[in-house]
Amino acid sequence: MLMAPVTGSATATAAARPATTGGPKVARTAHAVTVSAPASADAPGYTLDVATDELALTTRRAGKTVLATASGDTGALRFTGADGTWQHATGVTGWTWRNGVLTVTADSTLDGATVEARITPGADRYQLDWDVHGGGPKQLGLAYALASSGHWYGHGEAETPQGGPGVDQPWPLDSGQVEHSNFGPASYNMIDPFWYTSASTGLRVDTGGTMDVSVNSGKDGLGRFTVDAADTYKATVFVESTPLAVYRDYIGIVGKPKQSDATYEQYEKPLWNSWAQFYTNVDQRKLLDYATELHAAGLDGHTIQLDDKWESEYGNLTFDSTTFPDPKSMSEKIHAMGFDFGIWVTLWINLDSDNYQYAADHGYLLMDASDTTKPCDVTWWNGTAGIIDLANPAAKAWYEGNLKKLMGDYGIDGLKFDTRFFDEKCAPRDGYQATDYQKLGTQLADEYDLQGAGIRVHWNSTAHEAGFVTRQVDKGTGWNSLKASVSQNLAISTIGYPFVESDMIGGSGGQAAPGKDVLIRWAQSASLMPLMYSSTSPVETNDVTTGQKVTYDQQTIDLYRAAIKAHERLAPYIWDQVQATLKTGDPIMRPLFFDFPKDQTSYTVADEWMLGPAVLAAPKLGSGATRTVYLPSGAWYDVNQGTVIHGPATLKGYAAPLGVTPSFVKLGAKGALKAIRALKRDDVPAASVLIGPDAPSTGSGEPFQVTTTATNWGTRAISGVRTSLGLPDGWTARATTAPTARSLAPGAAHTTTWTVTPAADAAWGSHDLTGTVTYRTSAGKTTTVDDTVQATVEAAPGSVHDPYRTTQTTDAQYAQAGDQFAIWAGGQDLSGWKDEKGVVYLAGAAAEQSTVQTQLVSQSGASPAAKAGVAIANDLTDPSKGGYALLVMTRSYGLEFMTDSNGDGVLDTWAGGGSTYYPAHLRLVRDGTKYTAYTSKDGETWTTVGTAQVPSASGREDAGLVASAVNANYPGATTEAVFKALTVTS
């Protein structure tokens, strides 16, 4: 298709100068129209390039791409034509910039169809609205190249080819495949049209319709976000500095909770629901036995909730008199055990229910979308039903009247609302839209105690603001489902539903009863979430697949009970997070990168999470007794070991036998003391010691300060507290504040400040400093705890000592400490065309048979071609005198062995390559005029790099160390090279 010339109108050209200083600007380049939003105190700023050859959108922050639409046949702005085939926008035909809106028109791959996009830039986001004119479009969608933004998150419960959301939930989303049709406000899945990325960008699609969403479908690397309608496609793209800031932008639109639906007790203790224990094979005797067993085993809970199959028929709201002959007595017995009593309810009335015909005759049911003269019949897991029309006040009053009578008659304290409030097959009541039924359902549920089971409403502001607990879709009973329950909670909580719990502990998806280890590990995992939702009894359960009883052993009961008790102790801390969330909207259970956005490793950690600002949960989510734990930066208290670990750190093989739930508390974070008291094992030391800062640095012989802080995490006072500091040989430390304390009350701390002085010739690099605290427990037992940090002694420019000399052909500085050397150098290159370097050398040290060797410890600098290594020449101050050769390591391109073959001082032979590594042991062997280069990673096993003849080599030669920044493409850059020893043997 031919593309008309791009001509911004005269109005547009003038309007490219913003009306207000510092606002967004628009500029035209050869192949794009660029929108620029300047940085401010609250926003990082961005540019949006609108490609004109073929319409595409590329968002950049600080010059780096952070979000880009798809290219090629996929297209960026996509639509289906009347025949259902995919088309997309092509060449831009015109643009205007007026009143803060960039309007772009483009041709498309479909004859007769054009695209008009309107972009409204703001400080930290831009609005993208677009339409297709002509061609009879049926669907509109955006497509993005996933890799342009790093990793993708959000979405909520994801349908995947691997069985999601029941047994799979990829985290990040692009690590798996998401294929989610019927993605809309009437879906049973907890979803929102919001996605965010590790590049701190986000996408919100503003629609009340159904979408078709795919993320990395078929591993194609694309995100497709399609609305199943031809209406204006409305999207907001957020551009921030952190993913948390993107989340907050989104919450600023859809709203944050105004209250918590759950009470303190419902956060503190589990809800016991009958579903996974019995499924529909439940009756009065079984439920009472279930409650009695739990009570007798000390398995605390606030409610016994009777799930599905208590009704005579679905929708009757009357007990089945055969299976529940005396529900009033049953309720009273449950109350007598200290539990509340609740039941499962739905607004779906089966066609065989006594209430169906009554509701249909009175117009209380939603009508069919294809024939609004008859009720909408919907098939669900319990048959075929009609749905109460909550937009009809009379229908709502009738339903609630029946419900409240039932609750009053039988002492029912609360409800678990299940199924949906609307279905796409149905027609909304006149004056209402499908999305309104989420709001109507929310308002209905908010009138009742939901007993910690919450309600599955989403998509609109009412759902966000209601503050309901969110329970997950039913899970399987295997390890994959346990893992999915974690990543799913992270997904749900970061689309704006912060009061999350996993599905019923042990799963509830109709599979075989969970094994012992799965049940225990699930309980341990749930104990570190905001709420615990239980069903399968750790005493005994029923295998729905065989009908057989499954009895667990005493250890299962004990460890499940221990998980409940840990959660109860943690409840004061969790309740604090609930109150904080009501103020900020921030999720309680959240990915590590929400708290540590600069930590790139954290973006792919799928089996750990932060619970508030202080607790890092890393429960074991699979078989075995060890796991790898990743800790971001900071000081972390290990509640199972009683030790302090300085992050970032990867703990490989962390011991996690069945009775251990790995969890860590960030010292100094708000709530740390409450969290440690709740989670610390009784058998670990009462106190800890922490050295600060985490990573002190200094120069050789240069004093610096550290502190040691002893803290009593126990519930009783400790006494005789004495602190000491362990140092490397030759170092000294002097306490400038008291290193002792007579006693420390629970929660109290004692800090000692120390002045530490390294040895004058202290080796550059890391050195252990160990703080030790000795104290007496309340029982008189002497206990010792310690903490170790690494203090870095850094090289600083100074001088070298005889017999070493320096020479240079670029700006350079040098340092020496014992047998360590450092060179800071500039230089455009160190090769045939430029010989710019800094050198430390020994004059005349290399005889005709000799070996020159060093260890290159490290090398830094902006240029990937920066070089450092060993050199030899007749005269290193004037290589043109002959005998010149180098063996160097480049910062990114491996080794280079270069020689001067004709004695003119120009390096003209080369060997090398491979990968770069440190430390690198480098060796040049001279045998008359033959030079051989060797390298080693350990100083023991050597590999030949190359051999060369250098005829101009003669007599005793200079040998030394060299460094060059190789900054021809990085003007002004320097390199720092650190060496260990320079030896010349003959």
Describe this structure in words.
The structure is a single chain. The relative contact order is 0.06. Helix 12 runs parallel beside helix 13 (554-584) and helix 13 runs antiparallel to helix 15 (672-679). With 986 residues, the protein is of the alpha+beta class.
In order across it, which strands form the biggest sheet? 12-14-15-18-10-9-8-7-6-11-17-16-13
Q: Beta-sheet strand percentage? A: 35-45%
Helix content: 10-25%
Largest sheet: 13 strands, antiparallel
Task: Tally the helices.
Answer: 15
Strand tally is: 59
End-to-end Cα distance, whole Å, is: 76 Å
Low-confidence stretches: 1-7, 9-20
Mean pLDDT over the full residue set: 95
Quick synopsis:
This protein is an alpha+beta fold and 986 residues long. Helix content is 16%, strand content 37%.
Can you lay out the helices and strands and say which pair or pack?
Layout: H1 10-15, E1 25-28, E2 32-37, E3 46-51, E4 56-61, E5 64-68, E6 77-80, E7 86-98, E8 101-108, E9 114-121, E10 125-133, E11 139-145, E12 152-156, E13 178-183, E14 191-197, E15 201-205, E16 211-215, E17 222-227, E18 233-239, H2 243-254, H3 264-268, E19 271-273, H4 275-278, H5 284-296, E20 303-306, H6 327-336, E21 340-346, E22 348-350, H7 354-361, E23 367-368, E24 378-380, E25 383-387, H8 393-410, E26 414-418, E27 426-427, H9 436-445, H10 461-466, H11 479-493, H12 516-526, E28 533-534, E29 540-542, E30 549-551, H13 554-584, E31 589-590, H14 592-595, E32 609-611, E33 615-617, E34 626-638, E35 643-655, E36 663-666, H15 672-679, E37 687-692, E38 697-699, E39 704-712, E40 718-726, E41 732-735, E42 740-744, E43 749-757, E44 765-776, E45 782-794, E46 805-808, E47 812-817, E48 820-825, E49 838-846, E50 849-861, E51 867-873, E52 885-890, E53 895-899, E54 909-913, E55 920-927, E56 930-936, E57 943-949, E58 957-964, E59 975-985
Parallel strand pairs: 19-20, 19-28, 20-21, 21-26, 38-45
Antiparallel strand pairs: 1-2, 2-3, 3-4, 4-5, 6-7, 6-11, 7-8, 8-9, 9-10, 10-18, 11-17, 12-14, 13-16, 14-15, 15-18, 16-17, 22-25, 23-27, 24-25, 29-30, 31-32, 32-33, 33-36, 34-35, 34-36, 37-39, 39-43, 40-42, 40-44, 41-43, 44-45, 46-49, 47-48, 48-59, 49-58, 50-55, 50-59, 51-52, 51-58, 52-53, ...
Helix pairs in contact: 5-6, 12-13, 13-15
